[in-house]
Amino acid sequence: MSRLELPVSLLPLELREVGFRHADQNLLDGVTLRLGRVGKTVIMGPNGAGKSLLMRLCHGLLRPTSGSIVWHGAGRLGVQAVQHRQAMVFQRPVLLRRSGRANVEYVLALRGMGRRERRRLAGEALERFGLAAIGDRPARVLSGGEQQRLALARAWALRPEILFLDEPTSALDPAATKAVEDAVQAFHEDGTRIVMSSHNLGQARRLADDVVFLCRGRLLEHTPAEHFFTGPASAEAAAFLRGDLVW
Residue range 52-60: average pLDDT? Predict the structure, then answer.
């Protein structure tokens, strides 16, 4: 069953006046946002805008200090499904000191899968992301691009309904960036909802269906990508697209 054929969806995800305050600073302020069941959302904005923080809040790694985050299917699916139906890949992959294959099998074991099923799914995931030939190498000696694809393969094995990606190509060369973008597209084609932060305008143009633009912890725009790139509604977004420094 594909993700889009799930009888009960976790999505949409709704943020209602979400704020996050730390050390007497408002890092996010009154963010109201709705993410539907399909598509690729790219979160953009200058450094310090709150992009990574917003995704960590959505993923449940942090709790908002004000407002609420609502998964519309949570009441029917339960807390465990909210956790199990989503995945997140970080800017610097968090990998265990074991082989690439064992990294994938480990997360499947945490879901209670038997050894034979873990082995099968890990093999499929490594094959899908072009890692089958190096799956038995220690994960931490792989190149940066290979590590990022391994993190994506591990997430894919979990069959998430929604995937959060925090600047997944910021430290990669063009070839590795292309491989990760192809992997993101593969997730999308399998029916996974994509929410991704990026500072790369070219990448956002290639991947985004819609753009969320943050500046100084405030949501200034959420609009279809084509509207954002051709006619941004805020002065801050227009300056960002021109390459000006936005504080």
Answer: 96
